[in-house]
Structure formats: structure tokens, C-alpha cells
Design goal:
Blueprint lengths: L1 E4 L3 E6 L7 E6 L3 H14 L9 E5 L6 H8 L3 E5 L16 H16 L14 H6 L1 H25 L10 H11 L5 H34 L3 H7 L6 H10 L8 E6 L2 E7 L5 H17 L4 H10 L4 H25 L10 H8 L1
Parallel strand pairs: 1-4, 4-5
Antiparallel strand pairs: 1-2, 2-3, 6-7
């Protein structure tokens, strides 16, 4: 069984490799109708009620609740990375939900007949692991929202040639009290409403960051506490790495070799984007806070004298090496060669 999950309806394709597939349309989220379609397909194919059902659907907005529901009913389910599904390379090809479900069904049959590397199957987290990721992902969204509100206030001020470096705090309050009367009532009110939304976002961020710091300092997650002891890695970075590092990073190069042509297409970016972005940022931070480490010496030897473009390429290589070093630190306690620990955390650990 292959499921094409839509917002309002789901398309189902069911087959036994011998007959033409049965097709059903059910309301989105109606698992009772899905199980009824499975029962009808069993009857059509003259199979017993104890016949194993294999199913799949693409990872997306519905997440993993459907996977857990199907597993509870004895269905062997796969959640597939949609980017790994092969497509027709013709310039124009028909695409409908029905065709997509049929395509998924044929690929599911091929997968269970031995072609295991034809697509990427998602690693299913437990409900607790999913819930554990909520905090730092919400913080990420709030940071983007904070930037949007700040930029909006600045853009509205620039319309009257009023420029400010920082929106918020005591300096902003004092500056705004003097400048607000220079604006027309409509624009003044819009800026104040925008600033109220910005203040709410910052308040929520402070609450979440305090909760994140408490988790690291309390030792509830030993891996976070261990990572945060290294200079240059804060509580937020340690939290994100521990909770997201299980995913593939996508920092590996993508080769293209055809005939006599051999080129590199850049890093694959096929993995966990949060970890990928964070590790690149940590690589720059590592150069600043760990100047005497072996990784920093390697980067300086290879890329310090190069131009900006080569340094940006080299920082990705450093991020890959840093990921390996941090993994060894977490798994085996091997401190990266020449790395410096934070004094405060070291003293707490000794005490």
C-alpha cells in the first residue's frame, strides 16, 4: 500500500504484484477508512486476514503519527524522503496524486524485492525525542521572527530618514520618545504595534533560553553539559547538536563524473540543515575561541592565506572535521587536540 497524503484527501494504491492496483480516496486523517481499504484489497486479492501489509508514504507535514498508527495495526510501514524518489527526466511529464501513489507503490515493491538503495528511508524518532526537539526549533523560528520585526521597524523609520542601529532597550525608548512626534499618526501607530510584537517575541525567547540553559546546567542531558564545557560552544549550540546530530549532515561533496568530465558540484546539503548551518557557524567560532587547537592550525595552514572564496570553502571542510571531533568527544571523551575547556565548567566538574 502506498499513501499520497494531501491536505483534504489521501490517495491510496494497493496491490499484490500480480493484479492491477486498487485505488481509493479517503478523507485526510481517516485511518478507519484506510484500514477498510486494506481489508477490501485483501478480499480482492484472496488473501487472509493475517497477511502482512507493507506500506509507505513520503515524509512531510503529517510527520510520524500515521507511521505509529499503522505499526500498531501490524502494518510494516516506511517513511520515505521525498527528495530521494526517482522521477522521469522528460521535460514534460504528467503529475497527479494518483500517479504519485502508483509510483510509490511500484517503488515499494522494488524495495521489498531487494533494491534497498533506491530511496532514503527516514529514521523514526520516539514521541519523546520529537517532543525534545520542540524547544530549540521554536527558538529558531522566534529568531527569524525577531529579525523580521526589527527590519520592519527600521524600514518604516528610513521612510523619514530616521536611522537607528538597535531597536529595543533603554536607548531605543529614550530615542523614540523624542522622535515619535515627527511622524504622522498612522505610521507612528504602526511602528508601535510592530514594536509590541517584537517585545513579545523577545520575552518568549528569554523564557526559552532560560529553560535551555537550565537543562544544560542541571545535567539532565549529560551530552549537552559535556559539549558546553568546550570554549566556543554555548548552551544553544550544544542543545541543537545533541538533539539533531543523529541526522546526516549533508556536508559531503557531490561528485559528477561522466565520460571524461569530472567536476565537483559542491556539498550535497542532503541532511539535517539545522546541524549543517550550526556546524558552519561553530567552525568560524572555533577559529576565534580555539586559536591553539590542531583544527585551527590546520585551517590556517591550508586557507588562511587564501582569498575569501577559498576560506568559505575551507570552513565547510573544517565543519566536517569539527563534527567528527565533537562526536569522538561525546562518545569516547577525547578532547579535541589543543582545545581549551571553559574554566567555570571545569571547576564545577571538579567540585
Amino acid at each position: 500500500m502506498a499513501l499520497e497524503l494531501g491536505e483534504k484527501s489521501w490517495k491510496l494504491s494497493l496491490g499484490d504484484c500480480q493484479r492491477a492496483p486498487s485505488r481509493y480516496t479517503v478523507a485526510a486523517g481517516n485511518t478507519t477508512a484506510v484500514l477498510a481499504a486494506v481489508a477490501n484489497a485483501r478480499s480482492r486479492c484472496h488473501l487472509g486476514a493475517d497477511t502482512t501489509v507493507y506500506s509507505c508514504y513520503e515524509a512531510g507535514r503529517d510527520g510520524f503519527w500515521l507511521h505509529r498508527c499503522l505499526e500498531e495495526q501490524g502494518v510494516v510501514n516506511l517513511v520515505v524522503d521525498s527528495a530521494s524518489i526517482e522521477v522521469n527526466r522528460r521535460a514534460r511529464r504528467a503529475k497527479t496524486d494518483r500517479l504519485d501513489s502508483d509510483k510509490l507503490l511500484s517503488m515499494l515493491i522494488r524495495y521489498h524485492t531487494g533494491e534497498r538503495r533506491m530511496w532514503a528511508v527516514a529514521r523514526i524518532p520516539t514521541p519523546e525525542q520529537e517532543d525534545d526537539r520542540r524547544l530549540h526549533r521554536e527558538l529558531e523560528r522566534l529568531r527569524h521572527e525577531r529579525t523580521a520585526h526589527t527590519n520592519r521597524v527600521r524600514f518604516l523609520l528610513v521612510l523619514h530618514n530616521l536611522r537607528v542601529k538597535y531597536v529595543g532597550g533603554r536607548l531605543w525608548t529614550y530615542w523614540w520618545a523624542r522622535q515619535r512626534e515627527l511622524l504622522l499618526p498612522g505610521q507612528r501607530a504602526e511602528i508601535e504595534r510592530e514594536y509590541e510584537r517584537l517585545a513579545l517575541v523577545r520575552k518568549q525567547m528569554r523564557l526559552l533560553e532560560a529553560q535551555q540553559n537550565h537543562q544544560v546546567r542541571s545535567g539532565a542531558h549529560p551530552g549537552m553539559t559535556l559539549l558546553s564545557q568546550i570554549a566556543g560552544i554555548g548552551a544553544g549550540s550544544a542543545s541543537t547538536l545533541i538533539r539533531e546530530l543523529a541526522g546526516c549532515l549533508g556536508l559531503a561533496p557531490t561528485p559528477y563524473a561522466s565520460g571524461t568530465s569530472e567536476v565537483e558540484l559542491g556539498i550535497s546539503k542532503a541532511g539535517n540543515r539545522r546541524c549543517r548551518w550550526l556546524l558552519v557557524e561553530l567552525a568560524w567560532s572555533w577559529l576565534r575561541y580555539q586559536p591553539h587547537s590542531a583544527l585551527t592550525h590546520w585551517f590556517n595552514h591550508r586557507f588562511a592565506g587564501a582569498g575569501k572564496r577559498l576560506r568559505r570553502i575551507g570552513i565547510v571542510a573544517l565543519a566536517r572535521r569539527l563534527a567528527i571531533a565533537l562526536w569522538r568527544y561525546l562518545e569516547h571523551g577525547e578532547i579535541p587536540d589543543g582545545a581549551r575547556l571553559k574554566r567555570r565548567e571545569v571547576n564545577i566538574a571538579v567540585a
